[in-house]
Write a structure and sequence with these properties.
Length: 310
Amino acid sequence: MNSAPVPSNPMQPVNRRSFLAAGTLAATAGLCRVSADHHKSGGAHPILLSLKCGMCGEGKTLEEKFRLLKELGYDGVELDSPGGQNKEEARKASEKVGLPTHGVVDSIHWGVTLSDPSAEVREKGLQGLLTAIRESDSVGGTSVLLVPAVVNAKVSEQQAWDRSIEQIRKALPLAARLGVHILIENVWNRFLYDHDGPSNQTASKLVKYIDDIDSPWVGSYFDIGNHQKYGNPAEWIRALGHRIVKLDVKDWGVKAGFSKIGAGDVDWPDVRKALQEIRFTGWATAEVGGGNRARCKEILNNMRTHLLGA
């Protein structure tokens, strides 16, 4: 890794042991939001199943969508911010239906990046992240999914590393005050792995990036399918260990591309084994093509079969 050490933040005097405790608390907090009915039905699994709200194509209102997802057996749902779904409507729908909104996805992190050459753009990206943290908290969420940087012709990996960490650190006081985790997604952004490299890459850069931030409020939102191109997802899970706070669930294959869960090249039995080895508990959210009630049911069944082995 070519990155220079990042000075520790005096406002965050923590180490990785502290992070482990915080990650456990985050997972426990998520588990506590599951309804009693879910457990009475025999669904007390340590992994909670969710999907991105925009994937549900049936229902005119958020309440109708949430009720549909609740009836199908989902444990929760994830929103978008800034913008996206109306957060007050989502909060009321969540409370009325009994379906938790466990977090939000930063909706501007691709276009307004924390690694942009322009300080003005990076500031806008930071403000978007701060808004997402506040809105996640407002709906009872515990996280913001963040693509921290994008490497391209104008931004080197070192610049992406330094600039994004600088901006993320500015968001830590708010994240700590509201109890909302900033979770780094592994995604095809040419950062922390060689996009055009071999399929046996390790998680070392991603591990070091998270550890260099060194905050209990920053962890991994590990996307299982995104990493099939770069390396064995199960091995990345083992390497990241307690840094993983939440999961995105999709599949990918050399021939299939991004596909339905179970239709790509991901070795799901090994993924399940790895998650058990790191004692993962918490939210797993599908990120695949959505649709009507039947499609949402299919997605849930695929997660149960391949992620839970049920």
